[in-house]
């Protein structure tokens, strides 16, 4: 709704303008504006979020039942597997290091969006290293990764490439 992009204190009123001055006086409002702008660009540039928006092919739960940690995770599918995105949202104030997450396919994944990034006013708990899947079954899937989960945050992972093939003796 109008004004949400800057986190106005009060609901927008049709007879007044949006309080854009808040972004100059309060860092949290400026961070919100940067976050919403980045989120809009991210949405536009990632077809996995909108190609199958009204179709069951566009969504697949990874874990909808993690009530102990208050974390949900799911896959948004695009027309091509390379457009798939894994989304994880933590609804709790707890940070989780080495959190294991089942993945839709084996390979190297990278974090492409994190609501806890410093530029959005977050604490900066981000996954800067690439995440290679391991053949550890988790969440009903054959492969999984370990990652850091920020408090009260959401992260998005994108498939980057397949794992290198190994020879007979385990060498690349």
UniProtKB/TrEMBL annotation:
**Membrane spanning residue stretches:** none
Q: Which GO terms describe its cellular component?
A: cytosol
Coiled-coil boundaries: none
Gene Ontology biological-process annotations: glycogen biosynthetic process
Residues forming the Alpha-amylase/branching enzyme C-terminal all beta domain are: 61-159
**Domain of life the protein comes from:** Bacteria
Offer one Pfam family short name for this entry: Alpha-amylase_C
An example Gene Ontology molecular-function term: cation binding
Q: What is this protein called?
A: Alpha amylase C-terminal domain-containing protein
Species name: Lancefieldella parvula
Lineage, opening ranks: Bacteria, Bacillati, Actinomycetota, Coriobacteriia, Coriobacteriales
């Amino acid at each position: 709704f109008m004004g949400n992009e800057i986190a106005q204190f009060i609901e927008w009123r049709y007879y007044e303008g949006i309080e854009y001055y808040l972004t100059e006086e309060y860092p949290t409002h400026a961070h919100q504006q940067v976050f919403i702008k980045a989120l809009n660009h991210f949405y536009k540039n990632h077809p996995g979020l909108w190609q199958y928006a009204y179709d069951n092919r566009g969504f697949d739960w990874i874990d909808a039942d993690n009530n102990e940690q208050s974390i949900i995770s799911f896959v948004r599918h695009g027309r091509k597997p390379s457009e798939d995105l894994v989304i994880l949202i933590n609804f709790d104030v707890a940070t989780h290091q080495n959190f294991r997450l089942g993945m839709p396919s084996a390979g190297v994944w990278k974090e492409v969006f994190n609501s806890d990034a410093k530029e959005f006013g977050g604490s900066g708990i981000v996954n800067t290293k690439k995440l290679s899947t391991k053949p550890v079954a988790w969440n009903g899937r054959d492969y999984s990764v370990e990652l850091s989960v920020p408090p009260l945050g959401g992260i998005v992972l994108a498939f980057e490439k397949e794992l290198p093939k190994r020879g007979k003796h385990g060498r690349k």
